[in-house]
Amino acid sequence: MTFPELAAMTSQPHSEQFAVLASPSSEPGAPQSWMVSVANAKFHWYDLVAGFQQAPDIRDPIGRYQRRMQFELEAAAAQRHLFFAVVRPRVRFDIKGTIQWGFFSLKLTLPLLLGADEAKESITIELKVPFAATMKKPTVTLTPNFVTLNWGGLVEALSIHDILQTYAHTLKIPSKVVYVGQTRDDDARLGKGRLPALQKLHAQHSKHFDTLLLVQQLDVQVSCADGDPAEAPHNAHPLAADTLLADRMDVIEAALSNYFEGANPRSRNQEQRLLRTARLTEVQAEHNLVQFTIDLQYEDAGRYKYLCSEQAASAKRHLLSCHIANGQAITAPMPLPPAAKNAKS
After folding, report:
1. How far are the Cα atoms of 110, 160, 244 from residue 92, in angstroms, in the given order?
2. C-alpha–C-alpha distance, residues 139 and 155, integer Å
3. Euclidean distance between CA atoms 193 and 234, whole angstroms
4. Bridge-partner residues for 89, per DSSP?
5. What does the DSSP 8-state code read for residue 26?
6. Could you give the CA distance from residue 209 to residue 46 in angstroms, rounded to a whole number?
7. Where do runs of H (alpha helix) occur along 17-87?
8. 50 with 193: CB under 8 angstroms?
9. 127 located within any domain
10. What are the φ and ψ backbone dihedral angles of 73, each rounded to 5 degrees?
11. CB proximity list for 306: less than 8 A, separation 6 or greater
12. Which residues contact 248 (CB under 8 A, 6 or more apart)?
């Protein structure tokens, strides 16, 4: 899923440095309450851009896949989206294993190596013939990270995580959130593997885990007697609109960091924590923010919709009641509403 392009000024990511923004009015307006939900979300395999990778060869299907992912992350750097760094136990295709086809079908069994000890596993998927195919059954090629399907008129490249995310399987592989940040960055360091916080996390986890980025565009609905400030005439200018969105993303990022990483995340030093405290105090006062609710659910994430962390239990939906107190984002899980009949699990 792609994100709509929004024209806006760019700045350094607020996950590392919070800008001090002037209040348009010395008097706070009516109390505000926010409802935050996920508008769009997509996983990207960060290991493919981390470190000092060679430039992708766009003449090759895998190279085009990697370059397309870089383009998407570079585009996200111009937007005020949030991202989670998510680690999962390392998994690779077993290039020495046997590829098996089902009888008279397009059921394909691919050999896997799971975990640091490379335990042998497999996954069976059922392919669908793409429109541009000139062959009824593709030629299959494995690399440790990718499977390519040559259908004659079309070559598909799918990463191991595309396969695990899309197709049903019985492998128990948790998705653990280890960092919450923002994509906005003049230098687009996220897509280049150059963001210092992620470089450190990647160095800590890369031996035993794969690192993915869950990039999310959020929707914020505001309840306020004065109406949503985003619809006010003085916020119609792109710079004013971007400033307002920055305020909201800073608050939401802080709340989700508190929920997934804890009140004192190891990924941020004391100076960054003090800056965040000052920033939250400022935004709360400026917007008269009383309470906000965050509803995280990822219907398009396939088998990767369940998230957990050291602080949060695994769930496909995280519903949080939040508020700011003494410059801290306080979060508490809320009971989920009853599931609708015939809802997918």
Report:
1. 10, 6, 43
2. 9
3. 37
4. 209
5. S
6. 11
7. 61-76
8. yes
9. yes
10. -70, -35
11. 174, 175, 314, 315, 316
12. 34, 220
Domain total of the chain: 1
**What is the distance between the alpha carbons of residues 84 and 11, in angstroms, rounded to a whole number?**
19
Which residues lie closer than 8 Å to 329 by C-beta, 6 or more apart? Answer: 251, 254, 255, 257, 258, 280, 322, 323
Does residue 137 lie within any of the structural domains? yes
Over residues 49-65, the pLDDT tens digits come to 987 677 788 889 999 99
- Does 104 map to a domain? yes
Is residue 240 within 8 A of residue 76, CB to CB? The reply is no
**Quick check: is 116 in a domain?**
yes
pLDDT tens digits, one per residue of 273-332: 999 999 999 999 999 999 999 999 998 899 999 999 999 999 999 999 999 999 999 999
CA distance 282 to 230: 18
| CB half-sphere exposure, 186, CA atoms < 13 A | 5
Those residues whose C-beta lies under 8 Å from the C-beta of residue 233, and which sit 6 or more positions away, are none
β-pairing, 176-182 vs 209-223, is: unpaired
Q: In 127-160, which positions are buried (b, 16+ CB within 10 angstroms) versus exposed (e)?
A: beeeeebeeeebeebbeebbbbbebeebbbbbbb
Q: How many CA atoms lie within 13 A of 138 on its CB side?
A: 25
pLDDT digits (tens, 9 = 90+) for 217-268: 999 999 999 999 999 999 999 999 999 999 999 999 999 999 999 988 888 8
* Amino acid identity at 197: A
Owning domain of residue 137: 92-162
Q: How far is CA 323 from CA 40, 252, 335, 337, in A?
A: 24, 10, 17, 21
